[in-house]
Amino acid sequence: MPSDLPGLSLEKNKLPKAVSIQADNILWQRDVYRMLDLTKEKNAPLYHPAQPDGQRKNLFSMLFELVASNQLAVYEYMDKKEVFSDEYKVNMEELLNRFWIPFESTPDPKNPTLMVYTVDEADIPSQEVTLYYVKESYFLDQRNSSIRMKTIAFCPVLVREDEMGEIRRYPLFWVAFDTAREALSRQTVSTNKYNSVNRISLYDFFVQHQYQGDIYRVSNLMDQNIMDYCSTPEEIAAEQERLEQELKDITATLWSAHKKEPASKGRKSSANKSGKQ
Fold it and tell me: Per the domain annotation, does 208 fall within a domain?
């Protein structure tokens, strides 16, 4: 099917294969959690249009409609752990009631035991979702001697004023990246404010790390967020910078060391043979 946009073919947006992580091939791994501020220019493609505009909709509006129609399962946000199992699936009706979102419900024609929720586009709180949490995993894959990054999950965060007038963050749910890849590969966004035809899929936006996010946690024995041990904005910023540099240094060192291993083994093998002769 051709795209309505000139110069863009949806045939290129075939369902991509998920990036697999096989434990036997992983020599090193670190999970990194980032917070994406959608007011930053690099993250703007995830926010605009703030409200659906014809065929155009932002990431949250797309997710909201998929979850409301039982086309995508999402999971409870729990502090410092993610569990993607049926036990922790989000109940859409509870979510709608919690945030005072008006809706109508009807039995799902494909599965009458489930309900489909219809929400007016103007009532989808996509304008208030101005942050995302993203979980990434960096790993050294010995199959091809490469450092790779895989997006594991992301979480829309609703930012709203509470009854006391305080601005609060409400993480809504975790989306397992691989289960959403079909929907993400169908939705395209513009990454160039001067050329609206220059579009990529939301799937590629994440895979290519087109976003800008600040680290708020890395996997560690103490299971701590940065905010657990840094108290001032200056301390937090310094720790984020340190962790970014540490990640770059570790991945560069591991990649370099692993690339040298085959050559070293080869030299040892040759030396042993010459010694035996």
Answer: yes
Whether 129 is in a domain gets the answer yes
Gap between the Cα atoms of 118 and 93, Å rounded: 11
Which of left, alpha, beta for 123 (phi over 0: left; psi -120 to 50: alpha)? alpha
Assess contact for 168 and 161: CB atoms under 8 A.
yes
- Write down the pLDDT at residue 198: 77
* CA 26 to chain centroid: 21
Distance CA(76)–CA(44), nearest Å, equals: 25
Sequence-ordered list of residues with C-beta below 8 angstroms from that of 87, at least 6 positions apart, any chain: none
DSSP SS3 for 207? helix
Give the Cβ contact number of residue 257 at 10 Å.
12
Q: Is 212 part of a structural domain of the chain?
A: yes
Respond yes or no on whether the N-terminal peptide bond of residue 109 is cis (omega within 30° of 0).
no
Reduced to 3 states (helix: H, G, I; strand: E, B; else coil), residue 226 is: helix
CA dihedral 113, 118, 123, 129 (to 10 degrees): 50
For residue 207, give the nearest of 257, 260, 154, 254 by alpha carbon: 154
Looking from the CA of 76 toward its CB, the CA atoms found within 13 Å total 11
* Residue type at position 175: V
Q: DSSP character for 16?
A: P
Residue ranges in the chain modelled with pLDDT below 50 = 1-11, 13, 263-271, 273-277
Instruction: Confirm whether 2 is domain-assigned.
Output: no
Predicted structure pTM score:
0.83
Q: Which pLDDT score is estimated for 193?
A: 72
CB 172 within 8 A of CB 77: yes
- Work out the burial of residue 273: count CB atoms within 10 Å of its CB; fewer than 13 is exposed, 13-18 middle, 19 or more buried: exposed
- Structural domain tally of the chain? 1
Expressed as residue numbers, the domain containing 160 is 10-227
